[in-house]
DNA sequence: ATGAAAGCGCTAACAT
DNA sequence: ATGTTAGCGCTTTCAT
């Protein structure tokens, strides 16, 4: 390995010491010029800046961080950057971080909790100002306990674990949280279907262990109950949050499933898959069957008919996640408390995929 | 500001020294245990590891980097994380980086070249192993020269500037490059339209100063020329790479534009907007007018009719970008050379949005 | 307004 | 196999 400080062409890179010598000042002065946090004579400043330019000086962020300055970094851990749900949240985080003059370390777990833990560790090693965990997770007892320990460790180092769109870790854990009304959105959209007259609603759910899935299903059930509609277990079909899963589950159920006149897909991606299966089976939306999704990502507007769904303020969640723990300039007072929760609303957005019950899909077991 | 090394509860965080003392060994041994790069007696190792656990020791990546070890970080600079074009490339970068045990700093410029420069600087300060610039850019002379200087500076510090899907910086610049056959894809898809019998093809281009736009337009023109079809300037309409721009430009041209029987949108997003305008105007695709896009991002499969487009190996571009400059383990031989280029192919993917010329859209100026 | 010098936490010679 | 120690490049008291 190349020795530290030695460049490709063998010339050492410039350091504060070099700049100081070149400008005929001390390193302290150079530091003061860079950080503008202390008075420096205009002439001196000029000279130092000229030297920096001439030597092609680039400050070493690691040295700076080691000397006790914040690394100005926030870490964000998501399943998948290409999934719009995460991408929008990531955008919010990135923008708010950039506004606070910070850079963003993005980590993708691909849904693997072990990888999630590993990334938290890596971000802790880099002394990230905050570590933001995004999206639903398995709520396994041991896992939650382990996360609690990590939260503790981060907090002890002056950083913070932020849970964005996922449940808390229990009383003790020093985490901040950004929630959205997941259950409420599911309630609202189910109620919308009910209001149109639907009674047999097929629920194409998410992975059953994910907190997000559970909350949405809970909202759905509460809505049914509120209207006194019996919850038929045959109408609840959990599965992965993927387009292909939506497609396959839907195709299967059209072929040999229970009767239904409406479909509630637990997210828009699953809805897109379901829409294709419906289309291929010649089932017209919304004339024969109504369809709704969840999240309100762009695909909802591209589907035909355009998809009625639940809007989730994804980008805002990302922004709040960083704002919650990183107040720049202002007094630290209330932010010093280790836990803080922000709760954002969701709302239904009505488009063209819902109508009163039509022919529906009838059981036609072979 | 809280003093470095002092945690929330006032207890100092553990350092190698603490671990060493606790385990009754020297700091060197602790380091050797962590890095597994040197023999350590099994018993000693156990003891050290126990101490690390007990003290909740988390290595400080900055101290490590300062001591001369790579920061194991790659920087990626994109326009926008929620744009699938960039998101897929970012995914490739992230995965390849993770495979090489590195973390990924993601920066969004929102299309602003100044911000791009600022991010390059920030990534240099953090001593990223590589800085990957993604997507087309303005090829303004001064700007290219400035980028060249940054490439030089990075290279002098043992890092590398990688241009991913954008033109080189000229002979001298020590950059690596990942290209894709942008011009060729545009040629192929135009030729496809021509083969179907189209002669009046409306070209809904990208921003005229972007290299990506230029290359695509060039391919389009070459295809026309190859078939001896005159290039009508009225049929070339540049504009932003956005859905709304596609929508508005299309609507306007339907209303009061030149005749055409096919539309080539310079990317799928623009195509999605155009498709909506066509739909609203009652122009049927592909019966009345054929439509093609570029990039082959997921929306192409959601549109109805499904969009014929040009596939670009986005994720692979991202992977290659990091692979090109960061070979782990293997000999450095050929990678030592400051410049390297990888060129990836593109290919047309035929779906349902193209047919022989139909009624087309006729000029009906008000 | 500026300088001198003591760390920050780690790694890698160099010793033993 | 393990210990000693000299930096890595910066910030920040404490002097002046």
Account of the protein in words:
Chains A, B: Residues 14-68 form the HTH lacI-type domain. Chains A, B: It holds the Pfam family LacI. Chains A, B: One of its GO terms (molecular function) is DNA-binding transcription factor activity. Two copies of one chain form a homodimer. Chain A is of the alpha/beta class. Chain A has three domains: 16-68, 434 Repressor (Amino-terminal Domain), CATH 1.10.260.40; 73-180 and 313-345, Rossmann fold (3-Layer(aba) Sandwich); 182-308, Rossmann fold (3-Layer(aba) Sandwich), CATH 3.40.50.2300. Chain A has helices at 16-23, 27-35, 42-55, 61-66, 84-99, 113-125, 141-156, 182-195, 211-226, 243-256, 268-280, 299-302, 314-325, and strands spanning 73-78, 103-108, 130-134, 161-164, 175-180, 201-204, 236-237, 262-265, 290-292, 309-311, 340-344, 347-349. Chain A is elongated and about 85 Å long. The N and C termini of chain A lie far apart (67 Å). The first copy, chain A, binds a DNA duplex (16 and 16 nucleotides) through helix 2 and helix 4.
